Amino acid sequence: MDTNRIMQYEDIIDDYLLGRMSSEEEQNFLQECKTNPILKEEAISMAYLVKGLRNK
User: Fold this and answer.
1) Which of 7, 8, 21, 53 has its CA 20 to 30 A from that of 32?
2) 3 neighbors 38 (Cβ within 8 angstroms)
3) pTM as predicted
4) Distance between CA 19 and CA 2 in Å, rounded?
C-alpha cells in the first residue's frame, strides 16, 4: 500500500468522522469499508484515536 493511498484514505475518514459528507458520500464510504479491509482497518484505528483524544 503506497503512502499516497493511505493519505487519501485518511482524508476520506476525516470527512466521515467530522460529518463533512453528504448522505450519498457516507453510504458510499460505508460500502467501501465493507469491501476494502485496509480502508476499514484505517477507519477503525482513526476512530479509536479520535475517541482517545476526546477523552483527555
Assistant:
1) 53
2) no
3) 0.81
4) 26
